[in-house]
Amino acid sequence: MRKYYHKPQPISINEEILQKAVAEKTTRKEGESPPKAVAIQFHEALELHLECKNILKIDNLWDFTSLTKLDLNNNVIEKIEGLDCLINLTWLNMSFNRIEKIEGLEYLRKLELLNLSSNRISVIENLDELEKLTHFFMANNLLSELDNVLYLRKFKNLFALNLFGNPVSKEDDYKFFIAAYFPNLTCLDYRLLNEETKNEASVKYYYALEKMRHEELQKQQAHDAEQIQKAELQLHRDAFVEFLNGSYLFKSMLEDDPEAETLHCITEVADLLQTFEHQMVDLCMQLFEIGLAEHKRRETEVNSFFSGYTKAVTDYQQKASQILANFELQHKERIVELQQLSDPDVVKVKIIHCDNEISKLSNSLITLEFQMVSQLEDIIKKLDINTSEMVGNFSETVQGIFAQCRDLEDSYNHNVRKIAVATLEKVAKDNLEEDMPDDVRTLFTDRDTVMDALATGHDNHMLQINNRETLLVTHVNAWKVALIKGIQDKELKRNRMRISDIHRYVDHVKEQLEEFQ
């Protein structure tokens, strides 16, 4: 008679499965059953074994923040997900599942071993953040492009690789290809790569390797240059003087000047414009250098504050710890003495004495906390005063330089108007001393159009100057306000937590006395 077996339905990881898995691990490790009354703390678990449970969806792992090893092999998982909180994971086995795409691993930056063997993956990808990877197993998948394996060259610590059972592993040059392009690899498909194979591979692929090394060097140099450029730009932004080290502001003024190119065809205007640009760039560079210097001063002041803040908090913690240590030593002795007393009246007197000592402890800790708050308020106030002075002086300097920019623009506009009026008269009398393009001559046949163009250009230039000034002054003042508020909010949170901790501890030691009443 044929027997029919019920096939279990695929499941998601739920609370019950996790409780059992952690309990089983505890049992295996300690050799005995964990107490049923004690709740298992997921955040303390270091290993989790969920193999062969017909799991379809990874879920509910957010509490396992200390987990270093996770085994999910032999399930029916189709997508890598739900692992974002496992930031301490170093070992992950997801072999024998139904995964088609490598994804969802970007937060596992401590991962050293990754096993994705016996899935349905055709491309190695999305592993960029796993810089510590040493073991990568992807046997029995659908990888068909040997060049795709070169993606793994970025992992300098990789020394064990398994691609057995993929279409690529059946290619004639597979072994030598891997040995050539991965010189640090010691194990391929669970077999050691000997020096003879590596030497033969390096000879065979010499020219291809040289070409790749050259290309990689160029890419690395380009990447390094880009990072340096990004770091410089970030420094300029932190100093609030981004794009002031050159003609950026000047060029932005001309972008909104519709008749600029036409007017600049006049030789005298072009000469004026060139002088105007040089003067503007000089002022911008002056402001840029001052901004960097002021940023350094502010940074030094803030670093000095945090150094003093850290020292004050450390000294406070040491004093509080000493007070608590002295109290706990004496409190334990008093509890032992209480346990040995039998006379109710004597016990009552002793409890009153213990209560008084607890009150003294509470007063001492609260007083120390208030002293700490007062000390921190003083150094925060000092930081506020110093940074306010720095920001105020810098803002005045900024406003002074931008005032010079406006004066330059006024002078330039005034001189261009004079040239424009003279040119209008020459065009009207057909008395030009130089050849003039047709579009320029046409423009100067209408006085109102010329004057409107000059007025519009002047307004646009001033708008750009004013906007850049406002942006800089607003941002530097906002930085100061955000800095002080952030520090004050952090200190308020620390103070509230400390007061709460003191009250909780006092309640705890008072509860110890209740059993003697």
How would you characterize the overall build of this protein?
About 60% of the residues lie in helices and about 5% in strands. A hairpin with a 2-residue loop joins strand 9 and strand 10 (about 190). It has about 525 residues and is mainly alpha-helical. Mean pLDDT is about 90; it is low at about 1-5 and about 30-40. The protein has three domains: about 10-205, Leucine-rich repeat, LRR (right-handed beta-alpha superhelix) (Alpha-Beta Horseshoe); about 205-240; about 250-515, no CATH class.
Shape: flat
Question: What is the mean predicted local confidence, pLDDT?
Answer: 89
Beta strand %: 5-15%
**Mind telling me the C-alpha Rg?**
37 Å
> Can you count the helices?
10
Number of separate domains: 3
The secondary structure category is mainly alpha
Spans of at least 5 consecutive residues whose pLDDT stays below 50 are 1-5, 29-39
Enumerate the strands of the largest sheet in spatial order, edge to edge or round the barrel: 2-4-5-6-7-8-9-10
Question: Termini, distance in Å?
Answer: 74 Å
SSE pattern: EHEEEEEEEHEEHHHHHHHH
Percent of residues in helices: 55-70%
Largest sheet: 8 strands, mixed
Strand element count: 10
